[in-house]
Specification:
This protein is an alpha/beta fold. It is globular and about 45 Å long. The protein contains 7 helices and 9 strands. The strands form 2 sheets. The protein has a 7-stranded mixed β-sheet, sandwiched between helices. A two-stranded antiparallel sheet has the order 6-7. α6 (121-134) links the parallel β4 and β5 (135-145). It has helices spanning 9-17, 19-25, 29-41, 59-65, 77-86, 121-134, 169-178; strands at 47-51, 69-74, 91-94, 107-113, 135-145, 150-157, 160-166, 182-191, 201-209. Helices cover 33% and strands 31% of the residues.
Length: 215
C-alpha cells in the first residue's frame, strides 16, 4: 500500500488540488458576502476559527485584513503550507478538526466553508455541536455546504473522484439548530468554479448566532 493511500481522503484530495482550489473558488461572490457579513458582526480583534482553511484565501486573509486573530485548521499539509506562506499573520495547524481539542466559548466567530462534505452525517452533526460550543454567547458562525440529500456517493470534483455526504437544505438547517445555533438567514447560490473540469454547483450559506443566555 502506498503511503498516500493510508492518508485521509480529504488530505489526498486537497494536497493534489493545492493552488488550483484557490483559483477555482476564492472569488465566489456568495462566499465573499458571507465573510463580509461575519466581519461586520465581530468585535474588535476578535478570535476566529477557520475550519478547513485551505490556502488561507479568501477566508483567513479577509479576517486578518479586518484586524482579527485567526486559527486555521486543515487536514492537508500542502494547504497549510500554502496558507502559512500567503497569510503569515494567521496561525495554521495541520490536523483533523474532529480530533483537535477546542476550548468552550473561546471564539467570537467560526467559519465552516465546504469542510464537512467528506464526513459522515453523524460526524458532521457532532462537529457542528462542538463548534457551536466553542463560540462565545453572542458569537457568529457562517457555514457553507452543497445542499444535496446524498450519503457516501462518488462524485467528480475538479476532475477527481471523491466520496461525499451531505443533507438537503432543511437537513442542514436542522443540524445547525440542533447544535444550539440560531439561523439568522440563509442564502442559496449556484456557482461554477473556475476550473476546466468543474460544473455548476448548488451552494447553501447559513448565517448563524449562538444566542446569549435568556434570549
Amino acid at each position: 500500500m502506498r503511503h498516500e493511500d493510508r492518508r485521509p481522503p480529504a488530505a489526498v484530495l486537497f494536497d493534489a488540488l493545492g493552488p488550483a482550489y484557490e483559483k477555482a473558488f476564492a472569488h465566489a461572490p456568495a462566499h465573499l458576502s458571507a465573510l463580509e457579513w461575519l466581519v461586520e458582526r465581530l468585535p474588535p480583534a476578535a478570535r476566529t476559527l477557520d475550519v478547513g482553511s485551505g490556502t488561507g484565501r479568501p477566508t483567513a486573509a479577509a479576517l486578518v485584513e479586518a484586524g482579527h486573530r485567526v486559527l486555521g485548521v486543515d487536514i492537508s499539509p500542502v494547504m497549510v503550507e500554502l496558507a502559512a506562506r500567503q497569510v503569515p499573520e494567521a496561525e495554521f495547524r495541520c490536523g483533523d478538526i474532529r480530533d483537535l481539542p477546542l476550548d468552550a466559548e473561546s471564539f467570537d466567530g467560526v467559519c465552516v466553508f465546504f469542510s464537512l462534505l467528506q464526513m459522515t452525517r453523524a460526524e458532521q452533526s457532532a462537529l457542528t455541536r462542538r463548534l457551536a460550543l466553542t463560540l462565545r454567547p453572542g458569537g457568529h458562525l457562517v457555514l457553507a455546504t452543497v445542499p444535496v440529500d446524498a450519503e457516501d456517493v462518488e462524485v467528480v470534483f475538479m476532475g477527481r473522484p471523491v466520496r461525499a455526504t451531505s443533507f438537503a437544505e432543511e437537513g442542514v438547517v436542522g443540524m445547525v439548530e440542533a447544535a444550539g445555533l440560531t439561523v439568522l438567514s440563509r442564502h442559496s447560490a449556484v456557482f461554477t468554479p473556475d476550473h476546466p473540469d468543474a460544473g455548476p454547483e448548488p451552494h447553501l450559506f447559513l448565517y448563524c448566532r449562538r444566542d446569549e443566555p435568556g434570549h
